Amino acid sequence: MYLCIDLKSFYASVECVERGLDPFKVNLAVTDASRGQGAITLAISPHMKNLGVKNRCRVFEIPKNIEYIKAKPRMRLYMDYSRRIYQILLKYVCKDDVYVYSIDESFLDVTPYLKLYKKTPKEIALMITQDIFDSTGITATVGIGTNIFLAKVALDIMAKRVKDNIGYLDEELFKKVMWHHKPLTDFWMIGKGTQKRLHKLGLYDLKAVASCDEKILYKTFGINAAYIIDHARGIDDTKIADIKNYHPKSTSHHNSQILFEDYDYEDAYLILKEMVENNVLYLSKEGLVSGHISLSVRYSKDVIKATHSSHKITSVTNSYHVLMKEFTYLYQKYVDRHHPIRQIAISFDELKDERAECYDLFSNEEEALKDKLVQKSLVKIKDRYGKNAVFKGMNLLDKATGIARNKMVGGHNG
Known about the structure:
This protein is an alpha+beta fold. The protein has 4 domains: 2-7 and 76-170, Alpha-Beta Plaits (2-Layer Sandwich); 10-73, MutS, DNA mismatch repair protein, domain I (3-Layer(aba) Sandwich); 179-244, 5' to 3' exonuclease, C-terminal subdomain (DNA polymerase, domain 1); 253-413, DNA polymerase, Y-family, little finger domain (Dna Ligase, domain 1, 2-Layer Sandwich), CATH 3.30.1490.100. The protein is built from 16 helices and 15 strands. Strand 10 and strand 11 form a beta hairpin. The protein is globular, with a radius of gyration of 24 Å.
């Protein structure tokens, strides 16, 4: 038996608790007001949600007639609360039976503890959530399921719609109450793209998916059809130990930055250089090299479609000069020069241990070795004295963001 515990409107609830306020009675939005009306709200209080305001909306989308508190994001504070709550979970179950899914959500396998506590799964859930509330002031919702998938669905669709904030599903009940539920995107691991492809097959609910010829689904989704078919039937054999022991065949390192304002082509290129340098230092610190890179750019106000490009490079390296040259190639070839830019994302793919580093015939290996030595030295200095202990002249330019972002946690003020 599994529990999926979610901390309700976590960031907003923390800010309310810190102010001595009840998140169910006050309007509060976690957002950085300095970013203007286009700033995203990271979270809103449950009271605001009840007024029809959508979570993660932009400030200008909040109705003018709603008065609310603007709370600047404090990621270190939220991480501290999350750590405290994790310690509460460990009072009741072993760490091997807990999987932290995100900063505000965890899975617990409580099967071994039903006899120990002589309680039902719901009674255990109430015991834990009451402790969380008494210790931190944070309200939690819980999904209970006979497998991990059902626990997550019970949380996402059922728990948030009942007074006691606890939902329950087994396979039989799942078929009874969820098979005709719409939209499909309400279900865990079904995004808009998957839903669109299912609709093209004439499948609009999970009962239709469960009844569909498996050959058709495999032809459409490939190996991913396996979990779609199982989930449509309420089946999931995954254990928490399986999740913790999983190691992906290929790894990537991604970084994305939403800019404070619209940037032109040249100024956005400055941001790209900062991002590449910062992430190359990450690769150096972790002893990783990459032979494949990706670049994505989103333009202001969706004037045109976002640009996405990727490139397999002939070297496998973490050299700043080599990788910057490759990102510059993608930027100059694919990014539109005539539209303002609002978001840049980069990715280093096919990561390997740096012992697998290699260069093509045209690479300057002496320069790459120099890069490696400099990067290793910078990592040591920054680890000891802080990320802004050393920086380049470009980081002082008006449109640069590197120094400011080095003071942030998860892209937000600490």
